[in-house]
Amino acid sequence: MLAGVLLLIFLPPLVAKDLCKDSxxxxxxxxxxxxxxxxxxxxxxxxxxxxxRSTLAYAMRKETKNDTYDITNxxxxxDTPRVSFMFVVTSPGQPDQLIPKExxxxxxxxxxxxxxxxxxxxxxxxxxxxxxxxxxxxIIYDTEPWLIVFGVVIGAVAVGIVALLMSTVSKxxxxxxxxxxxxxxxxxxxxxxxxxxSSFGGKEGAYNQAFSNDDRFTKL
Amino acid sequence: MDTASEQERPKWDNKxxxxxxxxxxxxxxxxxxxxxxxxxxxxxxxxxxxxxxxxVFEGLPLLYLELAIGQSLRKGSIGVWHSISPLLGGVGVxxxxxxxxxxxxxxxxxxxxxxxxxxxxxxxxPWSQCPISENRTGYVQECLASTPVNYFWYRQTLNITxxxxxxxxxxxxLVVCLASAWSIxxxxxxxxxxxxxxxxxxxxxxxxxxxxxxxxxxxTLPGATDGLRYLFTPDWALLMDxxxxxxxATQIFFSLSLAFGxxxxxxxxxxxxxxxxxxxLVVGIINSATSLYASIPIFAILxxxxxxxxxxxxDSNILDLTNAFDVTERNITMENYESWLTYLNxxxxxxxxxxxxxxxxxxxFLDQSASGTGLAFIVFTEAVIEMPGSQVWAVLFFVMLFxxxxxxxxxxxxxxxxxxxxxxxxxxxxxxxxFTGLICVFNFLVALIFTLGSGNYWLEIFNSYVGSIPLLVIxxxxxxxxxFFYGMKRFSDDIESMTGRRPNLFWRVCWxxxxxxxxxxxxxxxxxxxxxxHPTYPAWNPEYExxxxxxxxxxxxxxxxxxxxxxxxxxxxxxxxxxYRLIRRQTRPQTGSSLPNxxxxxxxxxxxxxxx
Lengths: 220, 612
Hints:
The complex is a heterodimer of chains A (220) and B (612). Chain A is of the alpha+beta class and 220 residues long. Helix content of chain A is 52%, strand content 10%. Chain A has a four-stranded antiparallel beta sheet with strand order 2-3-1-4, sandwiched between helices. Chain B is mainly α. Chain B is built from 25 helices and two strands. In chain B, strands 1-2 form a two-stranded antiparallel ribbon. Chain B: It holds the Pfam family SNF.
């Protein structure tokens, strides 16, 4: 009777250990807590392992939509100081039957983000060997940033070129008016000082400023 | 005598503009990415000896010669050589052709710099990680096989073809960058030296500011001292190798941008009474000092890069060991790595050897040297990723490269524009702005060949074949022309009228003896070395079995014919013009074209008659 009771007590863990150790359906997990968190790294202990098993149970529940998965269905073995171990998942109905590898992999992949966040780790620091991480989607820009910089530069250059060309055109026009003013005065009888004349833009005659038109000042 | 159509020759606003322009022309990309490389491979500090000897006996005399004849004869390269002797008119034509060809590919390099500059504003930098493949299962295979920086350069920038025969298509991204580069050049070049003189205040001084910032930053990086020690530790034994002397001489020659005609053009806009001897010393010494000054931050950063590569190599080994043997995290560190390795090797050697641990040695990382575009776009960009605040350093670096190249482009374009203006090939109705615009548009269209998939290979061809032997030939003809055709006495008289004193014994000895002999030796040695090398080029071929190593391919016949054409076409004008003039001189009676024109009354010149 006592032997029977003892067997009953010790059988499940022994069976569990055998299921985990020799299984083909298990995955090796590796955590690099110190690499990820540095000074704020937490210690790996039984409670953390409890959390891990519960998150995996959660992942299995979500994936199979079967609410009967419990922490006892996640068996762990080969725990090393590296913080790496093997785990297998047993079926909730039949504790000696393992869930196939593909299903476990699917569950992990779908919920990796949640599992990572539970441990404050990332895809690089919480590794499931054999399950490749889903790479995040590349950022798609509406306008690529380099086009924006290019637009700014080319806009500034275009404005500069136009400004320089306009200044040349206006300089040429002013020079032409100066030359026109000079040549008109050559025909006149009085040969005044050319510079004073040219500033008035080639009008006929000399403008006598002593006789100004001050009509406009009398108007209200 | 007509004053209306005689335009006064443009001139510099002040001396500073002239000096900055000459310094900007001489100080270019080569000072940053060629000199440090040569220093590294030729025994560090020991290389300075042949370099300084070449500067004193070859560089400075040729520089003085060019500045003096430009200033005294007051014309661009074609006019100057025609004045010295009509038989030598071809020298000017050759200079102009070379300036044109070099300007084509040099601005393409600036287009690449602009591309990297535009991309430096992204977070994270696009060359720091591999892009994800189409179906999101992993990274792009080509990137994984090489490195993200290599992939970004060869695939995302150049989209290079595996072979020079395969031209690929025009890369619109590069076309856009090339257009921006030419627009920026145009806006500075639009009115010739009027606008160039203002632009150089920025383009010639900004690189020094950035180099100083980099110097301060680089010296605080870990591993900087390793790089500097590696650079400057002299290896005197290498001085026995003639290749070192040859490279020193060619480096000084190309670094000072001699024989392009640009320096002659710049000094032709000087007032007649200007101390060109002092200008020579200023420009020559600043150019070499800049090379030296630039190599310090470059090598500090390369040392930092080597150290971080070494550290990541060791770290990856540590990770492999930790994972394989399930050791507690962080138990194996850099310090105790060696002892752990020996311990693990003694307990389980098979497992250790199955890990294929990398062999990490700091020296091998330091030995990875690069020059040219490899240094700027691969090595340096990789180093910048590791520095905190990468975007800032990347932006500063590429703006510095751009302004270094831009100020050199001014010299190239002036070497084309000034002779054309002097020969009155420009119709008088065409304003200068339109003419410079046409030059830029023409250059842009021809340079589109460098934006093809095979563009980089063509650029390398232009770089090695145009910018080397023809320049040496022209420089040799220049010095022979001045010393023997123009006459040392006449030249010394000109210099006396410009600077107030005759050139001293050192200059005369150099011009008449040392420099021509040195140039001839360098020219012959260079040709001999080039001929012995089989013309091959490194191709980036992802299909190559030893990828990511470059596949060394030989040039096919038609490509090699183009190479030879590029080397000889510029200099062929020298004998052609000489022969043509000789024949004309024989068939025509001597009209006394060298005699003074009796109708030319020099008492009544435009400069003394102030117009209204």
